[in-house]
Amino acid sequence: MPPLENDGYWGKPTSTIDWCENNYEFSYYIAEMTNTVSNLMMILPPIWGMIEVLNQKFERKFIYCYFLLLVVGLGSWAFHMTLLYEMQLFDELPMVWGTSVMVYCLTEVRKPQTTRPISNVPLFFFLTSFCVFFTILYLYWPQPVFQHTSYGILVFASFLLEIHLIRVKNCRICRRLFIYSTSIYLFGFFLWNMDKVFCRNLNSLRSGIPKLLDPITQLHGWWHMMAGYGTYLQVLFTIHASYDFRYEKLNAPVNLQLRPSGFGLKWAKKVFS
Ligand SMILES: [Zn+2]
Ligand SMILES: [Zn+2]
């Protein structure tokens, strides 16, 4: 929402979108407080995920998936904190790049571990061209609908790839990860829409409740948290599915279990019945 009575540290918003949360209401330095802080869910889990990749000795390539989620989280933090167009790009461009990496990793799941950095050259070339084309066009034609559609197509492609992998392997843990990640993600997307459509109603609701409860009513903030955690689970899915295919062939005595916290996977001895 445009500033009610006060401008903040970052001046007049230059981004092509301004969200429902009132600007500079809680701080002179942060345009949208809840929409900014809620990005911690897109910043802290991927940092933890990268540490886990190293600790658990997973393939290094999964660090890229987490790293791009972290970049989106930092970009989104910067965007909502400043509402500057440059920071909006810092959020929106990595969303498309990161999901492209995710799609690529999902197509690699069934292949044996390789030392070659790029094993599917045509797909790599296609996705890179898609990202370059999208980036150039979006810089010239900064229509939010174009970004939303490009990102949406990639997310949809990642869902289809996951469904395919579940059908082939029928892994119980992957199925659980898929159900959690997609339902959390899609519910977050539903709230993203509600925040846009019912902004006026939400604002009148906010005027009647204590300020302390304001963050709970910021549905865009909920979207950040759900998209962050949903995508984090999607990376866990990719890791698990990769090892499903590789370790079966090796008849390994260990398999990967989901940690009860929901924030990681751990190697556990297989129970043979
Ligand atoms: Zn946002
Ligand atoms: Zn699995």
UniProtKB/TrEMBL annotation:
Keyword match Disulfide bond: no
Highest taxon of source: Eukaryota
Alphabetical keyword list: Hydrolase, Lipid metabolism, Membrane, Transmembrane, Transmembrane helix
Family: Belongs to the alkaline ceramidase family.
Transmembrane segments: 28-51, 63-81, 93-109, 121-141, 147-165, 177-194, 222-243
Matching InterPro entries: ACER (IPR008901)
EC supergroup of this enzyme: hydrolase
Known function: Hydrolyzes the sphingolipid ceramide into sphingosine and free fatty acid.
Organism: Nesidiocoris tenuis
Membrane topology term: Multi-pass membrane protein
Subcellular location: Membrane
Name the UniProt record assigns to this protein: Alkaline ceramidase
UniProt-listed Enzyme Commission number(s): 3.5.1.-
Pfam families the UniProt entry points to: Ceramidase (PF05875)
